[in-house]
Design goal:
globular, 12% strand, Rossmann fold, alpha/beta
Length: 478
């Protein structure tokens, strides 16, 4: 029988709880002080404790802290007459499962107990995870997966690690391109030298150039008096990882190509030529081959990158890896939170496996981090998961059927007006209108950052700038 202990100094409340719990099929036990409750928890081992905060002697919050240290598997529900924010925050910080205020609503208590025992039931089905001997930092920087696609990736990483040629890693945002680059470096003869990452989409061209190649004193306004070495210099002997290379300007592409060919760099504002020994690994979430056809990326630099290429599959194409990823991330997250996480319920795992994961592995990790933070026990239940996992739609993305209905309503009015005016270019007018509106909205959402906007829209930065100028918006958006 499910064992529930009530710790409360009010005898009337204890009697009411005893009658209620017996009526609901629970096995109740009563303690009238924190000290008595702690002693009986050790001997009787209840599943759930209903703990009053305002106890004589040791307070309920003090007792909660002791229970969590000595009996971490016991679920504790705090009951109090003190309906204040500070008590609530402190109780939840101490990992109380839930919080029920007085006067007590037994329907609320019933729901909390049902959830608590559902958690206990799920917990009993989960394996006890053995602690990894690897430091958290090392476990966080490794690839996870046993699918056929990932096995092929591991083989390619091995091939790439055995030589020093340039590598191009392609794949959607969040697929783990940085982890693949790091794995290639760690497996190579350069493993003891620096691995230096650069996000080419996070900096404007002028800053990216100085970041890559460095600068001499006085090279530009605001330059440090002593100058600054660039990332190529910092990566000397090791690996330079250039993420989102599609965002590079044509001028910077030329300079990078020259460096790859000569292994020489020149700092901004300097006259010296510096020799460097750097292996370059490039990555992109865009189709560089298509950008080359459109004249948006240099063909010679593209083929220089593509001497060896690797395409990372999206998470939706390797769903069998999801349980392994969930276990991996929960091990990392519990270390970060300082909170044990045993696992996720079967129903929760089913929701996770049914979701399309447009943000791929990175989105899965963020989802689990949110759920683990919100979970009131060491088990993640469906209620802990974000709304989009339940609905299948991101909260920032409308339901496609609703979007189509709204668009049709707007377009109907535009079409009727065009007919009345005798227009013969309705299609071009509507496409231009939608294109302009979408770009303006995306720029607003990305705080006018061209690189982030281009990534959001799935187009190159060069194409975005052309469209902004085409719509006559370059003065306000540049």
């Amino acid at each position: 029988m499910k064992h529930v202990m009530v710790i409360d100094d009010d005898e009337k409340i204890c009697l009411a709880f005893k009658q209620f719990l017996e009526g609901e099929g629970y096995n109740p036990a009563i303690a009238n002080s924190a000290e008595d409750g702690l002693h009986r928890i050790a001997s009787e081992k209840p599943d759930v404790v209903l703990l009053d905060v305002g106890l004589p002697g040791m307070s309920g919050l003090e007792a909660l802290a002791k229970i969590k240290v000595h009996h971490p598997r016991v679920i504790v529900v705090i009951i109090t007459a003190y309906d204040d924010v500070e008590t609530t925050i402190e109780a939840m910080r101490l990992h109380a499962f839930d919080f029920v205020p007085k006067p007590i609503d037994l329907d609320v208590v019933k729901g909390v107990l049902e959830r608590a025992f559902r958690t206990q039931s799920v917990r009993s089905t989960l394996p006890v995870e053995a602690d990894s001997d690897s430091p958290t930092e090392q476990r966080g920087h490794r690839l996870v997966g046993k699918s056929e696609q990932m096995r092929e990736i591991y083989k390619l990483i091995g091939v790439m690690a055995s030589n020093a040629t340039t590598v191009l890693i392609e794949g959607e945002t969040g697929t783990g391109k940085d982890l693949v680059a790091r794995a290639i470096h760690v497996g190579s003869e350069r493993r003891d030298k620096p691995f230096v990452p650069v996000d080419c989409g996070a900096l404007p061209d002028e800053l990216l150039e100085s970041e890559l190649f460095g600068y001499e004193a006085g090279a530009f306004t605001g330059a440090k008096a002593q100058g600054k070495p660039g990332r190529f210099e910092l990566a000397d002997g090791g690996t330079l990882f250039l993420d989102e290379v599609a965002n590079m300007s044509p001028v910077l592409q030329v300079k990078l190509l020259r460096t790859l060919q000569t292994q020489e760099i020149g700092r901004l504002g300097g006259t010296r030529t510096l020799k460097v020994d750097v292996r370059v690994i490039a990555a992109t979430n865009q189709e560089l081959g298509e950008m080359v056809k459109l004249g948006e990326f240099r063909a010679d630099l593209y083929y220089r990158f593509k001497r060896i290429s690797l395409h990372l599959p999206p998470l939706r194409e390797r769903q069998e890896d999801i349980p392994l990823l969930v276990t991996h991330f929960l091990q990392l997250i519990q270390d970060e939170l300082g909170k044990p996480i045993r696992g996720i319920s079967e129903e929760g795992m089913q929701l996770i496996q049914n979701y399309a994961w447009p943000g791929n592995v990175r989105e899965l990790e963020n989802c689990l981090r949110s759920a683990a933070t919100l979970s009131r026990s060491d088990v993640i239940l469906p209620d802990d998961l974000p709304l989009e996992i339940h609905t299948g739609h991101s909260p920032t993305t409308p339901d496609p059927s609703q979007l189509e209905t709204s668009l049709k309503s707007v377009l109907r009015g535009i079409t009727q007006t065009a007919i009345a005016e005798g227009s013969q270019q309705l299609y071009d007018d509507v496409v231009a209108l939608l294109d302009k509106a979408l770009i303006e909205l995306a720029l607003d959402e990305c705080s006018d950052n061209h690189s982030k906007t281009a990534e959001l829209l799935g187009i190159s930065r060069t194409t975005l700038i052309k469209k902004i100028k085409q719509h006559g918006d370059d003065n306000s958006r540049e």
